[in-house]
Give the backbone structure.
Amino acid sequence: MADGIHPTAVVESGARIGSGATVGAYSIIGPDVTIDAGAGIRHHVVLEGAVVVGARSKIGHGSVIGGVPQDLKWKDGTRSGVRVGEDTVIREYVTIHRATRPDGWTEIGRGCLVMSSSHVAHDCRLGDGVIVINYAGITGHCEIGDHATIGGLTGLHPFTRVGEHAYVGGCSKVVADVPPFMLVDGHPATVRGLNVIGLRRAGMGTLERRALQSAYRILYRSGLAPASAVLRLRQELPDSATVLRLIDFITASRRGVCGPPRATGDLAGDTEGERVLG
């Protein structure tokens, strides 16, 4: 057993604690838990089920990781778990539930930040570098792409997908898939423009951003039906790798993707200087 375990913590037989990992006061670590090297478990944390905490990740005070899913199809005794990637930070009082299916995993990627009092439900998959802001609720089977941001107090419908580098504004109600690279906001969430600020911070070059701006205008300002807009994207922007990823996401959607706002007077994002909502 590793050093750094507080004497009041309960670490059940079978748990694996890596070198340099710490476990805070009154935390409970179940028998099927693996905590990799350098990870930090703060006070009053509960890790239950098959939980894997990646190296150097941090779990904040009072969080419950691996709890039983809030799902009527859950069957007691199902062996499933939660994987937390390396260098991820989960803040205070976060709840992340394990998968519903046998040997399934709820997955949090590497380098994520899940802020306090957020909830990630069963069978969800969060990519690398995802940010989930306070009190967001991600319901079952959702998929969040790499480097997407979910605004505070936002709710996602089950089975919703959020594409890479998308930004969901705070207090949004997300009932359809959020296309990658886009900024959405509202009740229900609608596309307000391209997430240019996020793309700049991610180091995306000017040519790719301009291609995505053109794609946004075709998808959301041309008046074309989605299928016709995608066809036009293929014809006019065939050499852009990011546009091709946007097309693939849209064509793979089963729930449909977020549309434009009903009122056209408040469309952010049509230029390189758009604002971030939420």
